[in-house]
């Protein structure tokens, strides 16, 4: 049964905004309003291995890069900066991206197959896609200006391996050269799908399902899926799962309407379970039952560490 | 010293109310207290215990409340609750009922304000960024809507001009004219941190003040929106600052940050910005709201009604003496202290009586100019001069003079004889800093500073009133090389230094230049120092003028990580309880700017009163004793039981071997050993079908001989894929990779050589894409491709298989072609899908760090999507067929590809080849050779040891 594996006293002086484990599940990174990012070793108990200071505002989100690029962690903050940290014996600032004009709300690494690419969504309404070129040891950025008119809250990448359905529609497309795609959610209540064409990012389509700010979007891993799935949550208390065969036409179903604002959605590795959390301080896990309906399989009541089925 | 005494006051405690705000009606008789659970109205003329309570109509906790200040609508109350405004009617002084609802906001309403001149107009602001002006006669929708990009937290109508109103957005102020709704008429970037209160002057149309989290109250004049007229520095965050209805006073509520500062209610005389005039002692906690009550019968008696967080109501008598201390009221004198200060710079226009002049002289004699005058001293001077001047006032009727301003400016001239010219002419020597130009007429100077290859060129403008509590204005001139972030920090540091100096009326140029070079050195040299220097007290990188909407921050979340781990974080339960009261309890434990931000974020549920730091500490301590969930913890849940991934199975499964029946039997046992009976059954089922296929095909396993086996196997795999059981699906895919596709290797073997040679005209199977084979006359084309060159065995096999399938197709009747092609496509898709599953499983194995298992899975992946090799490649060319390959043996001719140049034997293991001349051989032999030699062992005159560099260049 579901059990608490580890309780980490973070020592953060303020509210924690994000926590993520690395690829191997050996480390945990957390970020907080106290402007710091902390990294813990989870092997043999919990040891703090780095307390990264460099942001001058609350740090909203963090993301681990694929380990084939080394130990890299991206963090974004209210101070309009995105910092990429790297471990070379000790954790150091690797790159700092300061082109946003307002709070950066979300960072997400592209699937590792595409290279070392980071997408950043900001309150200034733009999305930045910054790409690392190892040959020149430089970062190059592209911006999607006016992606969301009043601010972008979340970005999520389309997996590198396409789902089966998207292949059927275009059998002759080279399967190994996948188009890069992004989903983003913003304060204009929209979810937008972006794709890279040439060296431009263009809006492929938008999904209008929410009646309030979209707080989080999550593109499901494609493993075993026949369709593309995007989960989104919003201030309108709803979680919506949208599916598509061709990235253009999306069919949306409301997973559930919650009692409070919903803040985050997260897919499991095998894309069959969705974790939802919101302002009511609760986490619930959702799964599709045999009839194709979304059902809640458990409630994790936070702070109490109890799970009710 | 500020005068401290206890005024007479009335105290009443209404603990059950839990209110945050109060509002007095126009008559001054009734006080409205919107409590958390019920609304209360207190008749102030009745004994203090009596209070009438009324049930609340909405579930929402009440936010701002305001009684209509006009006698025409004296019975009307506006109460913000959640996203709507309730208009309540106070009927017959006994009954409170809801008359109207104003609904249009989409986020919590933060503030509301009745128009001071029009009884029907109400302004509301909300976190939805809109400011609405309602005409209550038409309550369906707002009469005027003012749109800004940032969440609005405060609104206030101008008290004199009927069209003007101000809204605050974080640290910024926007001034609107209701006749021009498209954009604000003025934009004032007032503070770096959030503004808690804004108030318009009662006397001057253009003047207003803002109280902020940053510990200052700033005064602005709309005629000069970029300039701060004056500042009161309280050192601690200011919750409220409102002009007093009498004199030139200001009532201020501060948010104490430590136990030492216990009193939060202060009265200031605006003429003296250095120290409060009076402290109201009594409340044990912060005052949340206050109202002035005016006794008309008496004419000039005011009562101060305060509501504190300790849920007590206090009524203070503010007697005449105290009122007079605040200076003359608006009727008598009308010169703003700042205007006056600028006038006095002319010096000549002001005639000061001899008596006072003498007094000044004596002061000058008494005190050294450089000596810092203490607050005590200035107060005594203040009083002394006050007495002397009172008589002079009558004499000088032609030129009205604000006495207090005069006093202030007098003291200033007394202690700060240093003028700008003296300052400019002083020989300032600071290393790396040069004063380039001074201009005494335009009151400016230009200085450059050089440090760490960076140059800063700074323009300093000295306002006329400098250095009397007015610092110079700094600007960067052309030629400044530092980044905007550094500029911002330098400006910040400069202003701090200047403010510190001018607060004591001292010249600040030299100190500022020293700060400049010091800050510059720190900022440009070391990143880590930067952190220490600037994170402490100032919000350095946040621009105050950014149009940021305030998103309530995420305080709870869950993320699936790794394999079957759920990382959860949340506000601790204790914090939850606090936030129920709309207070972010833990905020004040962190530093100030975070506090400010946090307040804003948490304000989404309505206006919130601040909580004193020690209270929080106390509260927290208590909670720490009571509960264990008070720390900021991250919980990692093991949710692997929800997924069908088992590390033990991964480790123990056999994926390849000579006999498939053995593999199946073994895997069934493994499944049973970890308690997966269902998987054991599946493996046994597969085992049975393999056996039956074997029987059907006389011992050899040819799945085509069996009518159902392959379909069954496929449907089993698809079932597991649909269940997201990647492990089982991928394992089955790996074991039966040969049989899942159209034909098997066994059935194909006899025709192998012929088909290869005849059907691949290019002669080599190692082309990226085979040409489509027009094997018969139909338009049927089978997209045969190999994606990337690969040396795995399965690759070779795939080629053979596809050639075979063509052969197979030739046999098929033309009429059946279309249906066959469909299955072929589907087959290819299946194969592709199975490869994806295998890759996904390999990824999971990688995370488990089961690398050898991963390798054996990846071996079964046909089309490797791994990245293409970049840079140089080594290929061998077959001596016989001249085809190039990566093998140690030509796949068609079976001739070894490479012979060692030293021992002349074929190379099967590790090889080294000179990239320049192409000669090479066994790694060990070549290594030994190059240890002593630098040229090629063949004698081709190639300097092999140099060749690597040559090629890389």
TrEMBL record, chain A:
One of its GO terms (molecular function) is structural molecule activity. SUPFAM superfamilies: WD40 repeat-like. The lineage of its organism: Eukaryota, Metazoa, Ecdysozoa, Arthropoda, Hexapoda. This is Protein SEC13 homolog. It is found in: Lysosome; Nucleus, Nuclear pore complex. PANTHER family: NUCLEAR PORE COMPLEX PROTEIN SEC13 / SEH1 FAMILY MEMBER, PROTEIN SEC13 HOMOLOG. Signal peptide: none annotated. Pfam families: WD40 (PF00400). One of its GO terms (biological process) is COPII-coated vesicle budding. WD repeats lie at residues 9-50, 52-86, 97-129, 255-290.
UniProtKB/TrEMBL annotation, chain B:
Residues 899-946 form the WDR59/RTC1-like RING zinc finger domain. The keyword Repeat applies. WD repeats lie at residues 102-144. It comes from the Eukaryota. Keywords: Repeat, WD repeat. GO terms for biological process: cellular response to amino acid starvation; positive regulation of TORC1 signaling. SMART domains: WD40. This is WDR59/RTC1-like RING zinc finger domain-containing protein. It comes from Parthenolecanium corni.
């Amino acid at each position: 049964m579901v059990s608490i594996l580890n309780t980490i006293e973070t020592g953060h002086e303020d509210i924690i905004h994000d926590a993520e484990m690395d690829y191997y599940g050996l480390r945990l990174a957390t970020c907080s309003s106290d402007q710091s990012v902390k990294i813990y070793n989870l092997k043999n108990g919990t040891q703090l291995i780095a307390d990264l200071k460099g942001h001058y505002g609350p740090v909203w989100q963090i993301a681990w890069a694929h380990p084939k690029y080394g130990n890299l962690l991206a963090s974004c903050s209210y101070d309009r900066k995105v910092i990429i940290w790297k471990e070379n014996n000790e954790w150091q600032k690797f790159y700092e991206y300061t082109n946003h004009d307002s709070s950066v709300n979300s960072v997400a690494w592209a699937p590792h197959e595409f290279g070392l690419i980071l997408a950043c969504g900001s309150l200034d309404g733009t999305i930045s896609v910054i790409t690392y070129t190892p040959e020149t040891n430089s970062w190059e950025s592209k911006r999607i200006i006016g992606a969301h008119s009043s601010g972008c809250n979340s970005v999520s990448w389309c997996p590198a391996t396409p789902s089966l359905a998207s292949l059927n529609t275009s059998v002759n497309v080279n399967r190994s050269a996948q188009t890069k795609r992004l989903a983003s959610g913003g304060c204009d209540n929209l979810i937008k799908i972006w794709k890279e064409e040439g060296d431009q990012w263009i809006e492929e389509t938008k999904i209008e399902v929410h009646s309030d700010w979209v707080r989080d979007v999550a593109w499901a891993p494609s493993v075993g899926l026949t369709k593309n799935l995007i989960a989104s949550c919003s201030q309108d208390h709803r979680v919506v799962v949208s599916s598509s065969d061709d990235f253009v036409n999306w069919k949306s179903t409301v997973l559930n309407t919650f009692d409070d604002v919903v803040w985050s959605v997260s897919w499991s590795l095998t894309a069959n379970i969705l974790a939802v959390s919101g302002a009511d301080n609760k986490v619930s896990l959702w799964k599709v039952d045999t009839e194709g309906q979304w059902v809640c399989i458990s409630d994790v009541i936070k702070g109490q560490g109890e799970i009710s089925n | 010293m500020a005068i401290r005494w206890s005024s007479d006051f009335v105290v009443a405690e209404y603990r059950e109310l839990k209110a945050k705000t109060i509002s007095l009606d126009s008559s001054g008789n009734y006080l409205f207290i919107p409590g958390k659970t019920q609304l209360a109205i207190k008749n102030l003329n009745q004994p203090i215990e009596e209070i009438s309570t009324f049930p609340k109509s909405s579930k929402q906790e009440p936010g701002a409340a305001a009684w209509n200040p006009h006698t025409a609508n004296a019975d009307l109350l506006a109460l913000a609750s959640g996203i709507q405004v309730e208009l309540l009617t106070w009927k017959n002084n006994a009954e409170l009922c809801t008359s109207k609802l104003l609904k249009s906001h989409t986020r919590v309403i933060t503030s509301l304000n009745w128009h001071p001149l029009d009884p029907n107009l109400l302004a509301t602001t909300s976190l939805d960024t809109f400011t609405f002006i309602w005409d209550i006669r038409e309550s369906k929708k707002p009469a005027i809507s003012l749109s800004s990009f940032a969440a609005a937290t405060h609104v206030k109508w101008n008290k004199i001009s009927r069209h003007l109103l101000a809204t605050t957005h974080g640290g910024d102020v926007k001034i609107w004219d209701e006749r021009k709704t498209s954009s604000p008429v003025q934009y004032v970037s007032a503070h770096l941190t959030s503004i808690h209160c804004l108030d318009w002057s009662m006397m001057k149309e253009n003047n207003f003040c803002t109280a902020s989290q940053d510990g200052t109250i700033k005064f602005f004049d709309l005629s000069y929106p970029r300039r701060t007229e004056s500042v009161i520095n309280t050192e601690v965050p200011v919750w409220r600052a409102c002009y007093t209805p009498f004199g030139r006073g200001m009532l201020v509520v501060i948010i104490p940050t430590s136990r030492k500062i216990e009193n939060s209610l202060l009265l200031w005389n605006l003429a003296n910005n250095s120290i409060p005039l009076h402290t109201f002692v009594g409340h044990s906690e912060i005052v949340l709201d206050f109202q002035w009550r005016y006794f008309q019968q008496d004419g000039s008696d005011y009562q101060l009604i305060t509501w504190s967080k300790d849920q007590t109501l206090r009524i203070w008598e503010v007697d005449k003496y105290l009122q007079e201390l605040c200076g003359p009221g608006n009727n008598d004198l009308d010169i703003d202290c700042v205007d006056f200060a600028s006038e006095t710079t002319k010096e000549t226009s002001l005639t000061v009586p001899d008596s006072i002049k003498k007094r000044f002289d004596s002061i000058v004699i008494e005190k050294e100019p450089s000596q810092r005058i203490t607050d005590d001293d200035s107060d005594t001077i203040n009083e002394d001069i006050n007495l002397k001047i009172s008589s002079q006032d009558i004499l000088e009727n032609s030129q009205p003079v604000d006495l207090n301003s005069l006093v202030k400016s007098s003291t200033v001239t007394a202690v700060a004889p240093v003028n700008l010219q003296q300052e400019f002419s002083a020989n300032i020597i600071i290393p790396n800093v040069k004063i380039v130009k001074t201009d005494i007429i335009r009151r400016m100077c230009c200085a450059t500073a050089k440090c760490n290859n960076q140059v800063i060129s700074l323009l300093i403008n000295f306002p006329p009133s400098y250095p009397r509590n007015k610092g110079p204005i700094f600007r960067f001139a052309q030629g400044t090389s530092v980044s905007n972030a550094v500029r911002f920090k330098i400006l910040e540091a400069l202003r701090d230094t200047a403010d510190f100096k001018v607060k004591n009326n001292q010249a600040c140029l030299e100190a500022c230049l020293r700060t400049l070079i010091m800050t510059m050195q720190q900022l440009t040299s070391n990143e880590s120092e930067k952190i220490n220097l600037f994170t402490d007290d100032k919000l350095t990188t946040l621009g105050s003028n950014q149009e940021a909407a305030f998103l309530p921050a995420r305080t709870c979340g869950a993320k699936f990580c790794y394999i079957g781990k759920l990382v959860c974080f949340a506000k601790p339960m204790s914090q939850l309880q606090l936030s129920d009261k709309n207070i972010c309890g833990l905020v004040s434990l962190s530093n100030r700017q975070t506090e400010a931000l946090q307040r804003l974020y948490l304000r989404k549920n309505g206006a919130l009163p601040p909580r004193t730091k020690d209270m929080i500490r106390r509260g927290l301590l208590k909670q720490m004793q009571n509960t264990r969930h008070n720390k900021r913890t991250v919980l990692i849940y093991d949710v692997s039981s929800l997924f069908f991934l088992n590390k033990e199975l991964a480790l123990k499964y056999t994926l390849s071997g000579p006999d498939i029946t053995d593999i199946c039997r073994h895997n069934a046992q493994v499944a049973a050993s970890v308690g997966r009976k269902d998987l054991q059954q599946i493996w046994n089922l597969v085992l049975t079908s393999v056996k039956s296929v074997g029987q059907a095909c006389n011992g050899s396993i040819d799945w085509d001989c069996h009518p159902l086996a392959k379909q069954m196997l496929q449907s089993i795999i698809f079932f597991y894929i649909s269940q997201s059981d990647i492990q089982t699906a991928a394992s089955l895919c790996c074991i039966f990779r040969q049989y899942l596709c159209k034909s098997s290797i066994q059935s194909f073997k006899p025709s192998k050589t012929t088909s290869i040679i005849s059907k691949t005209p290019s002669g080599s199977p190692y082309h990226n894409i085979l040409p489509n084979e027009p094997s018969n006359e139909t338009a049927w084309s089978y997209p045969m491709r190999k994606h990337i060159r690969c040396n795995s065995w399965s690759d070779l096999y795939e080629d053979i298989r596809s050639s075979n399938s063509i052969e197979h197709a030739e046999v098929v009747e033309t009429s059946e072609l279309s249906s066959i092609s469909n299955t072929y496509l589907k087959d290819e898709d299946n194969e592709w899908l199975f490869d994806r599953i295998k890759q996904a499983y390999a990824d999971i194995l990688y995370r488990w760090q089961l690398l050898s298992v991963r390798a054996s899975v990846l071996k079964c992946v046909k089309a490797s999507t791994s990245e293409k090799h970049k840079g140089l490649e080594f290929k061998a060319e077959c001596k016989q067929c001249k085809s190039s390959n990566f093998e140690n043996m030509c796949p068609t001719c079976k001739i070894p590809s490479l012979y060692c140049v030293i021992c002349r034997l074929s190379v099967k293991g590790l090889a080294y080849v000179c990239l320049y001349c192409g000669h090479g051989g066994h790694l060990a032999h070549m290594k030994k050779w190059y240890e002593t030699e630098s040229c090629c062992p063949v004698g081709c005159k190639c300097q092999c040891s140099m060749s690597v560099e040559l090629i890389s260049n």
